[in-house]
Write a structure and sequence with these properties.
The model has no long low-confidence stretch (mean pLDDT 88). Helix 2 links the parallel strand 1 and strand 2. Helix 1 packs across helix 2 and helix 3 packs antiparallel against helix 4. The chain has 2 domains: 103 residues, Rossmann fold (3-Layer(aba) Sandwich), CATH 3.40.50; 59 residues, no CATH class. Strands 4-3-2-1-5 form a 5-stranded parallel β-sheet, sandwiched between helices. The protein is built from 10 helices and 5 strands; from the N terminus they run αβαβαααααβαβααβ. Helices cover 49% and strands 14% of the residues. By secondary structure, the chain is of the alpha/beta class. The protein starts with a helix and ends with a strand. The longest helix is centred in the C-terminal third of the chain and has 14 residues.
Length: 211
């Protein structure tokens, strides 16, 4: 997947890009930073992990909601995924109608089973722990403190292994931090990009690997 992303950059004639990855996208982004460091102007890893087999498992609650979201029917899926992605306090404050509209656009159609199995296989095989010290790209780590799918301590592991990584904490956010904290996170991303070689970021200069 990392090689595919770099090939797309080649086709678009992007020499270097700011690489942003969320969850499994963050795992792909780690590989881009390791395999193609010269193409990575900056790196942002959001709610992701380095692949340690036991430590990277979700919480018990997160695992249950994840499986229901993948394999349950539409009603089960639409009920389980919000609870997987967002803390109860946010769900209560957001309101039923707004949440329903948000989810229907982004989560209404479940992926094909073959796609799900391929993603799970890729995540299970992901392993960068022993190589993270080789990352040279300026790195921003986003740590949602109430994430039940990828434990917040996984961001701490990344911070301990990636040289000079900066950690942005959202202690009241869940795995869906990119929506829950969109305004604050987007501002932080723009600042991260500006500090690392680009004052005004155009969409064509950012590789977004959100998954």
């Amino acid at each position: 997947m990392a090689d595919d992303a770099v090939r797309i950059m080649d086709d678009l004639r992007w020499d270097r890009s700011h690489v942003v990855g969320v969850s499994m996208g963050g795992m792909i982004a780690q590989e881009i930073a390791l395999r193609s460091a010269d193409r990575c102007r900056s790196l942002t890893l959001i709610a992701t992990h380095d692949g340690a087999p036991v430590a990277s498992l979700p919480t018990f609650k997160g695992m249950g909601l994840f499986l229901k979201g993948l394999f349950g029917g539409r009603k089960v899926r639409m009920k389980s995924l919000p609870r997987l992605l967002y803390p109860p306090e946010f769900l209560e404050s957001f309101g039923t109608e707004g949440l329903r509209a948000h989810l229907s656009v982004r989560l209404d159609r479940p992926p094909a089973l073959r796609t799900v199995l391929g993603q799970l296989h890729a995540v299970w095989r992901h392993s960068t722990e022993s190589r993270l010290s080789q990352i040279t790209s300026p790195t921003l780590l986003v740590r949602p403190g109430k994430d039940i799918l990828i434990r917040p301590t996984q961001t701490d592991r990344l911070a301990a292994r990636i040289p000079h990584a900066e950690v942005l904490r959202f202690d009241d956010a869940g795995h869906g931090v990119t929506f829950q904290k969109a305004t604050e996170l987007n501002a932080a991303l723009r600042g991260h990009f500006a500090r690392n070689g680009l004052e005004a970021v155009r969409p064509g200069l950012v590789v977004d690997l959100s998954v």
